[in-house]
Design goal:
- By secondary structure, the protein is α+β, with helices and mostly antiparallel strands.
- The chain has eleven helices and 24 strands.
- Strands 6, 8, 12, 13, 14, 21 and 22 form a seven-stranded antiparallel sheet that branches. Strands 15, 16, 17, 18, 19 and 20 form a six-stranded antiparallel sheet that branches.
- Strand 23 and strand 24 form a beta hairpin.
Length: 605
């Protein structure tokens, strides 16, 4: 509401003190229904000293008083929980509680980092574990905040929605007795009949999209219902987002799979390199599909400050849906996943897989495959391990297992004193460095191993006759001979590439996005739209002349309400212009001058 406006009928300007008196008239009941229900917000009540009232004597009196006390406090706590203030506090606590989940390693995301953190922090580790900071989003305290916020929003929205629906179905309340007590007010006298003024005002207000009707001697109008609609939409959207996030966390699944060119993948849990899912996820929820990686294409900037930055980064695949689906071709790029049902297949990483051939001392091939190497830097300097687990016998005919520690660079930077590294991510000058071991790889113990590392605790390194470690840097097509007739390993000319795919399935993400956009639009409506009421009273005065009064009332103070009332008053004044006083003294005028047109009284610009 504006703190100033003009009473043009009297020439008086209402100041802040007068405006405050007008704002307070609803407290003594002068506005009545006219000043009520401008908002669906519940009335905030204070805590009484005792809900039970006076207690009657005896056990029955005590039980009755206790019952009233319990019910009273329960209602008070429910009103507090469902208040907007508490909902905002809970929303703030929820966002505050999510901070540890971003800063502290989470067991559901990376259990190894959690274990490393506990080993490095002997004091903080147990404390964080007891507080549930390693699994924030499934902890008791985070779930309690989440559920309380959900209940608070539901308890706040449902009654306000029914109240708002009732307001929409009803009519704007009639005019109060004293319109001049309202914050925005205008009045003038006119020669038009009261019925004509009311009909003209009704038409003008409806043209300005007010809900208006004539009640007794006044026109009652109201506008700005979208403010409360936006407010309710905002809170309903929050509930939709909470439900969508909870649904997505409970039924989500996420897995990674490294695939070498020419190999394929079927969407079953056993095919994944690593897999994690929500508490309510079932293997039956996996979308049935399969795909094959035909070729990975990567090109890179050759010069300039962005040298080595990928220009093309894509995987050409063929896929089919279901067991007997028709095979289709597509290309998966970064941020352009393959969508199959509820699943999305993202391209997340790339590397090289040198093809190697291992022979025993008799020249028999005991291993031939592409070995994926794990990138260590942006130029794809990579390391890995070659494990020959079956089919190998040494020169004495004893069955053994072979292991080779491998280091691969796609563009060799040249021999140096330190470790070799790559100076460009493309295959310009590939080199494979190897050193061999023989013995037991430890895979028969059934303990999971890292495919990129060797467990050499039960192995011996190959050495030559002088006791030097046997190792070599191989170009494509070159072979490293193992000592004592143990065989050889060849770096074949064919170098394949691999791509890592992340398959995600998170239901509810679309609903969360819809809820987010709806919340933004609802919040904008509740902030920028003002709900207000306007009354136009036209009645015959004591001297038989029609007196027109216009007043406005808003939910909160705003300078726009007097301006809008001034515009409306000007339009009504055009239909019912001011009637000059009959006892006004005659004024001499120039006969050649144009007649002056009186301005619309009460119109504030």
């Amino acid at each position: 509401m504006s703190t100033t406006d003009t009473d043009t009928g009297t020439g008086r300007t209402k100041g802040p003190a007068a405006a405050k008196r007008h704002i307070g008239v609803s407290a003594d009941g002068e506005l009545g229904e006219a000043g009520s229900q401008l908002s669906t917000a519940p009335v905030d009540t204070a805590v009484p000293g005792s809900f039970g009232g006076s207690r009657a004597p005896g056990a029955l009196g005590w039980l009755t008083w206790t019952g009233r006390e319990v019910v009273g406090w329960a209602r008070w706590f429910w009103r507090q929980l469902t208040s907007m203030r508490v909902a905002l506090i809970l929303l703030f606590l929820l966002s505050l509680g999510a901070i540890p989940g971003s800063l502290i390693p989470q067991s559901g995301t990376d259990a190894q980092k959690v274990a490393d953190f506990k080993d490095a922090h002997s004091i903080l580790g147990p404390v964080y574990d007891k507080l549930g900071l390693f699994h924030v989003y499934s902890s008791v305290w985070f779930s309690a905040i989440y559920i309380l916020l959900f209940v608070s929003l539901i308890g706040c929205i449902v009654p306000r929605t029914w109240q708002f629906v009732g307001q929409l179905r009803g009519r704007p309340p009639g005019a109060p007795k004293r319109l001049n007590r309202l914050p925005a007010y205008a009045t003038w006298r006119t020669g038009a009949e009261p019925e004509q003024v009311r009909e003209a005002a009704l038409k003008i207000l409806k043209q300005r999209r007010f809900r208006a009707h004539i009640e007794k001697d006044a026109v009652a109008a109201e506008k700005g219902y979208l403010r409360e609609t936006g407010n309710l939409l905002f809170h309903i959207a929050l509930i939709v987002m909470l439900v969508a996030f909870a649904w997505g966390q409970l039924f989500k699944s996420e897995g990674n799979k490294l695939i070498v060119e020419g190999d394929g993948f079927s969407n079953t849990i056993s095919q994944y390199d690593d897999f994690k899912s929500g508490n309510l996820f079932s293997t039956d929820d996996l979308t049935p599909f399969s795909f094959n990686l035909k070729k990975f294409t990567g090109t890179y900037e050759r010069t300039g400050p962005n040298k080595g930055t990928p220009r093309t980064y894509q995987a050409a695949i063929t896929y089919s849906i279901g067991a007997y689906g028709k095979e289709k071709k597509t290309t998966v790029k970064v941020n352009e996943p393959l969508r199959i049902g509820d699943s999305k297949v993202y391209l997340t990483a790339h590397g090289y897989a040198p093809v190697v051939t291992v022979r025993d001392g008799k020249g028999n091939v005991v291993y031939h495959d592409a070995v994926p190497m794990l990138p260590l830097d942006p130029n794809v300097t990579s390391q890995g391990a070659i494990k020959v687990m079956d089919g190998y016998k040494n020169a004495q005919g004893t069955t053994e297992q072979l292991g080779f520690s491998a280091f691969f660079v796609p563009t060799f930077a040249g021999a140096g004193k330190g470790d070799m590294f790559s100076q460009f991510p493309a295959l310009d000058f590939p080199v494979l460095a190897l050193s061999g071991f023989h013995g037991s790889l430890g895979v028969d113990a059934g303990i999971p191993q890292n495919v990129y590392q060797l467990d050499t605790s039960k192995m011996k390194q190959f050495k030559d006759a002088k006791g030097n470690i046997v190792k070599a840097r191989l170009l494509p097509g070159e072979t490293m001979k193992l000592p004592n007739g143990a065989g050889s390993i060849t770096f074949d000319k064919g170098i394949k590439e691999w791509a890592n795919f992340q398959v995600t399935q998170q239901p509810g993400s679309d609903w969360a996005l819809i809820g987010a956009f709806t919340a933004i639009f609802g919040l904008a409506g509740s902030l920028f739209i003002q709900r207000r009421r306007v009354w136009v009273r036209a009645a015959t005065g004591a001297d038989g002349v029609t007196v027109v009064e216009m007043a406005g009332l808003g939910r909160s103070e705003s300078a726009k309400l007097p301006e809008e009332l001034g515009d409306l008053a000007a339009l009504v004044h055009d239909q019912a212009p001011t009637k000059p006083d009959t006892d006004e003294a005659a004024v001499e005028t120039d006969p050649d001058a144009e007649p002056s047109v009186p301005a619309a009284e009460g119109a504030e610009k």
